Amino acid sequence: MPPWLDPSLLPAYAAALAFGYLCGSIPFGLILTRLAGTADIRAIGSGNIGATNVLRTGHKALAAATLIADALKGTFAVLLVYSYYGSEYRYFAHELALPAAAGAFLGHLFPVWLGFKGGKGVATYIGLLLALAWPAETVLFVLLTLLLWIMHRANIARLLNGTEGKIGAPSGA
To answer: Which burial class, exposed, middle or buried, applies to 128 when counting CB atoms under 10 A from its CB (0-12, 13-18, 19+)?
Structure first.
């Protein structure tokens, strides 16, 4: 059996996944727009909580802040798990960072705080790529990329039909 499949590591894998999920589920788009006093971001444009929908409010600075915060929550989850387990599981810290990455991504897509209706995951995905420093297992990124396409299927259909709203244009709400 490969050493990274050691059953004694299961609590560490579960903790990394849960921590990543909690980090990823922080709805920065919703928090930042509420702090700025704008309308509920979920009632504007696509109804998502991500940076692209925040940009539809016409507040470019809020959209940029959302993009950065959503990317950094994925980066933070991975790097913190990696550094926390790095001393105890020196040879397995990278493997333990992968569940944190998956958890952060899933937390952004399906945050428990918002009835499992989150963003599309692009910024968080980019943050995960940065944190994992490229040598990550390919299978995880194939799965995450597939989830990105699935989450964007309605946007892609609207783009192909020519009915997708322009980024940066204020919505009617």
So the answer is: buried
